[in-house]
Specification:
about 425 residues; alpha+beta; six-stranded mixed β-sheet; globular; binds zinc ion
Length: about 425
């Protein structure tokens, strides 16, 4: 069984002034508590929550007797997390001050401090007793409720002072059992596309990450230059504008969408997903060798590992097994003849140095990932041309065929949730399949 957790953000309705004031007072006390605890933890070099709690519980209780006692626990958790990351920065010489500043705060609550009350309101313990808050459920929230996810006991609450609302960070959890796979779906992540292979058919999801990232790179640079000149290097308005570019969100969105299609396809067929095993530092190593600053930026941002992580997350949710194989030479060796494929200057199309057949680089990678998953890692024995058997069916590796994958532009796949729908539309608009 695997535990899967998802955070869902819901807002309360706009609260009456009187009720909201309670939360403002309450947040202020909670903030003071966290601030004191963080300073103490950093000063005494304490990273552990239990230690911090053991040393400070009594004092905090006497300072804030009106607060429910469990807030001391959650404030200690909050503070020790902050202290830990600050001490790490300090050790690396990256801390800008002696103590961390507690700027943004969210109130951590556990099962003693909040309770759902039906599906559309929650109760929160404060210094003025329990307060019932109505929330505004949305589609995503109902989806988790209807699909029988369980609410975790930990949650976080933030105040939106402008709208007199509470913002509540709920965590939904579910236990999922992994199924036993009946076949494989290979996934090869590249800079501008994600190649997958299902039942011997390769598909290329064009992601255009390169364009997206370079576009942002220039836009960000322009904003930076303009604002640095106007307001100096550390201006707030610059940060605000840069945040608005929402680079992260857009990229993440692409990742989730493509991961969704891949995982749902694997789930429907009850296949395991094959991914390249990338080391923690794989992108860094790749980057170190690249002199061109722009390209370095691009690769770092594409972060192959990031896409894999999203696929993993989604796979967990559906109980789809994920297999990792060694990525060595996956796009360089002919899967039929086990010799190198020659690519002429930067082309993605190459020719097998033995059989002379034409290969598309990303298709080669998918085949090799599949073969490695079936025959175990490392190099595999050469197999007679055209007779590789995968799941009992011969792999179509004729020496005359160009192994062109089916390329699917982002404008098409981004709007769909499953490969079937995508492919049907694809046929409808008359593209070759
Ligand atoms: Zn070959």
């Amino acid at each position: 069984m695997i535990r899967v957790a998802r955070t869902v953000i819901v807002k309360s309705v706009k609260l009456p002034r009187k009720v909201f004031r309670v939360f403002v007072e309450f947040e202020c006390m909670y903030r003071n508590m966290v601030e004191q605890l963080v300073i103490y933890a950093v000063k005494s070099n304490i990273r552990s929550f239990t230690r911090l709690k053991a040393l400070k519980y009594r004092e905090m209780r006497s300072l804030y007797p009106q607060l429910p006692s469990h807030y001391v626990y959650t404030a200690c958790q909050d503070a020790s997390t902050r202290a830990k990351s600050f001490l790490r920065l300090k050790k690396l010489g990256l801390a800008e001050s002696d103590y961390p500043e507690v700027r943004r705060i969210s109130i951590w609550v556990d099962d003693h401090l909040w309770k759902p009350s039906g599906y559309t309101s929650i109760r929160i313990a404060t210094h003025k007793g329990w307060v019932t808050i109505e929330i505004e459920p949305h589609r995503q929230y109902w989806r988790y409720i209807n699909r029988e996810w369980k609410l975790a006991s930990e949650a976080k609450v933030k105040l939106n002072k402008r709208n007199r609302q509470l913002i509540i960070y709920l965590t939904f959890v579910r236990e999922v059992e992994e199924f036993r796979s009946r076949g494989y779906l290979a996934v090869d992540v590249n800079e501008n596309n994600i190649a997958i292979m299902v039942d011997g058919i390769p598909y290329l999801f064009e992601t255009n990450t390169e364009k997206l990232i370079l576009g942002y790179h220039y836009r960000r640079k322009k904003v930076q230059e303009k604002y640095d000149k106007l307001y100096g290097k550390k201006s707030r308005s610059k940060k605000k504008i840069l945040r608005k570019l929402k680079e992260k969100e857009k990229k993440l969105d692409i990742k989730w969408k493509v991961a969704n299609i891949i995982v749902k396809t694997a789930y429907e067929k009850q296949y395991a997903i094959i991914l390249e095993k990338l080391g923690k530092k794989s992108t860094n190593n790749m980057i170190a060798r690249i002199k061109n600053k722009q390209l370095r930026h691009r690769i770092f941002q594409t972060s192959f590992r990031g896409i894999q992580k999203v696929i993993e997350e989604k796979a967990k949710e559906y109980g789809v097994p994920v297999i990792y194989v060694n990525p060595k030479n996956t796009s360089r060796i002919c899967p039929v003849h086990n010799v190198s494929i020659i690519y002429s200057n930067g082309s993605r199309i190459g020719r097998c140095s033995k059989g002379g057949e034409i290969w598309h680089r990303d298709v080669v990678a998918c085949w090799n990932l599949l073969l490695k998953a079936i025959w175990g890692d490392g190099s595999h024995a050469p197999s007679p041309a055209g007779s590789i058997l995968v799941d009992g069916s011969p792999v179509p590796l004729g020496s005359t065929a160009t192994h062109e994958p089916i390329g699917i532009p982002k404008s098409i796949w981004a709007r769909w949730n499953s490969l079937d729908v995508t492919m049907n539309l694809y046929k409808m608009i008359g593209m070759p399949t």
